[in-house]
Amino acid sequence: MHSYEQAKQVVDELRGRIHTALRDGGPDAEDVVELACLLEEWGMRTPATRELLERPTAQLTAKDLIRLGEGLLRDTGFEPTFALEPSLWTALERALEMVERDVQATGITGTLRLVIPDWDVSGQAWVEFQGVHHGNGIRPSAGSDPQWALASVADATQEVIMEMIWGVWPVCSAHGLGLRAELEHETAVWRCAGAGTHTVAPVGELPPERR
Predict the structure, then answer these.
(1) Residues 130 and 111 sit within 8 Å (Cβ to Cβ)
(2) CB 3.0 to 4.6 Å from 188: which of 5, 116, 125, 150, for a disulfide?
(3) pLDDT value at 21 more than 90
(4) pLDDT (tens digit, 9 = 90+) per residue, 80-124?
C-alpha cells in the first residue's frame, strides 16, 4: 500500500505520462493499469478502472489503451500543466500582449508579465504588474482556447492593476463605470454594467483615451 502523499505523487506522474503518450501516439499498458490500481486503492472505481482490472492486460489493444487512458484522465479531472504543454503558456503570453494594448490605450504605463509564484503549488499563471502579482490565478487549461485565454488574462490583469492604482480599470467612457471581461458569442469582450449592459470593445481593442 502507498501512503497518500506517495500515491498522489505517483498518480500525478502516471497521469502526466499517459497524457503525453496520448498526445504522441498511445499510452503504455503498464502505466494505464498501474493508474487504475492506484485509483482502486483510493476507492475511486470507474468504468475504466473496472475494465482495466477485469481484463487480461495482454488482451488490451492499442485502441483500448487510448480509450481507457482518456477515460482515466477524464474521470480524475486531469489538466495538463504548463510544463507538459508549453503551448498553453504561449497562448497566455499572446493574450497578455493583446491585453497590454488596452492598458496602454488607457494611459497606464508599467511592465506586465506572466509568472508562477513559488507559493502557488497548483502551478497557475499570475499576471504581474510593476513587480506585483495579485488577484486571480489562471489555470493552464485557459490556454487551450485563444478567446478563453484573452478573457482570463484580461480579468487577471484588471485585478492586479486596480490593486496597484487603487481605482477602477478599465472604465466605460460613456457611463464612468468599470468594465468586466466576458465571453460574448465566443469572443472576449469588455462589457459595461451601465444602461442595460453593453459591449464596449473586444479585449485588446479599447479605443485610446482622449487627453
Answers:
(1) yes
(2) 150
(3) yes
(4) 999 999 999 999 999 999 999 999 999 998 889 999 988 887 889
Asked whether the bond before 170 is cis by omega within 30 degrees of 0, the reply is yes
CA atoms within 13 A on the CB side of 36: 22
**Under a CB-based contact definition with an 8 Å cutoff, are residues 146 and 178 in contact?**
no
User: Within the chain, what is the greatest distance between any pair of CA atoms?
Assistant: 73
Contact 80, 140 (CB under 8 A): yes
In terms of Cβ atoms closer than 10 Å to its own Cβ (0-12, 13-18, 19+), residue 7 is middle
* Identity of residue 80: P
Task: Please tell me the distance from the alpha carbon of residue 71 to that of residue 141, in angstroms, as a whole number.
Answer: 18
In whole angstroms, what is the distance from residue 199 CA to residue 196 CA? 10
